[in-house]
Amino acid sequence: MPADTSSPPGVSTLSRRPRRPRARRRDTTSAYVLLAPALALLAVWFLYPIVSSFLLSVQAVNVFYYSQRTWVGLANFQRLLSDPVFRSTIRITLTFVLIVVPAQTVLALLAAVLVQGLRRLRTFYRTALFVPYVTSTVAVTAVFMDLFTVHSALPVFFSRLGLADVSWFADVHLALPFLAMIYVWMNLGLYMVIFLSGLQTVPAELYEAARVDGAGAVHELLFITVPSLRPFVLFVVISGMIGAFQIFDQAYVVSGGTILGGPAGATSTIVIFIFAQAFRYNKLGSASAAAVLFLVVVSLATLVMRRIFREETRAA
Amino acid sequence: MPHRFPGTRAPLVALRYVVVSLAAGVLLFPLLYALYASFELPKDYGKLVGLGALTAWNYGQVVTLVPLLRWYLNTIVVTAIIMAGNFLVNTPAGFALARLNFKGKRAVFVLVLSIMMVPLQAYLIPLYLFVAQLGWLNTYASLTVPFIVYCFFIFLMRQYFSTIPREYDDAAEVDGIGKIGTFLKIGLPLSGPALVTQMVLGFTLTWNSFLIPVTMTTDKSMFVLTVGLNTLKSQYYDFPTVTMAGVILLSVPVIAVFVLFQRSIVPSLASSGVKG
Q1: Domains along chain A?
Q2: A152 contacts on B by Cβ (under 8 Å)
């Protein structure tokens, strides 16, 4: 599991070995020979851009006069936070997260419980449910757009249930739910597999005891499975929030890459906003400030997740 | 649990299969639909036709209307470079972090873990500007060089190397092959399963990646399949059957690799929740 990544299990055993100064020195040289390519590439392709990202957020930059950058302090952030487009971007992204996370968590849990209960063909069904996750987001979005084009079978079917017969991706009210549907469809398999690995940890005696007490399937699910999977549910919810917060591909494809965030800004998620500000409107200041805020939110959420998960596994 | 009370709940068991099959049907339907539509003539689009009316016409169209074969080649080249680079760079780093005792080990490991939680989108702009300054836009270099080092893979390899019994190190010490020799002669040959995981994940993530190629390439001849499909879809909006042929050509390799190697990648995907 994502478990405990901060206390490397190898370290303690290593330091318990008898110390030999010569061997130790040799290790350091060899270690850095083995690490050198990775560290060099990280310095150039991670540390340099990430530091630049912070610098750009406090500078005024024009991409056509890139060398003439001036320090503007927090002006980019002030402008960003008072920008109604950015505010609606935040609202849209949070709405998306709030639709997607509960839906995919519940559906993935149900799918895991169902697949776990199968005697035969378990691998077959697990594979079938997982295939969408490994399929290209661009390919999947193209297919869904086709399926949900006006007058196609599905919009006509849903129009009987009271929705308008429209192209879902082109409708201001349906575009975001449409993205959420694609997103859940793609990620369900991943979270199901996480729950499946969690289900291996639930002791069978718990279910047997419940059966003796005459508990039904729903009771079992609510009072045994879900509480036993608590750490896994937490993991799926938090990492699901982090993932959904970063949605980009589907939203980009829906707008064809031309008017990003369309229709009428309904799918302008935060990464779409950053991308559009930087690469469509040449507003590198706003884009960089938004990218820094985005980085802070995602990193904090990941730290919180690691901490919670460490405590959960320790308690278990 | 698979069969706690065998025989007592036969109807319930059958119901399970029905429900799971329905779920699998819903999840596979869009892909099966794309497959079917990709073999339909445009005039039959949206209708159910018999097998006799199916044809490979769209596939012929898609390779003549757009430079699809070139995009295929680009995707394969980029994916191959990244996979080779991943192997060469992340594997030794993971070995050092798992097996060697050295100054700064903890700092390097914390660095790797911290970088793992930073999404690419957070530094996409400076990355783009840097690549542009180097004159690398619309080159294979822009799509590969920055993504060869990947901290999740270093972590993955480290976790695996940590599980190899320590006796192997002592044997190596007796042979006097040094730590780098231990990596090459003992670590690498034993790391097969983790290497397969790294390779297959690297393949999947690169083959499907969209954000980077759509940022770094504007020249049609440098597109990869994902970017190409996106333009194909907009440009030939009136010929959805042709788009579906593109969808199938893009998806089949990655689905095939996944089905073949799922045992080596599903567990680590489950433990990380990564998606490029």
Answers
A1: 21-73 (no CATH), 76-315 (1.10.3720.10)
A2: 46
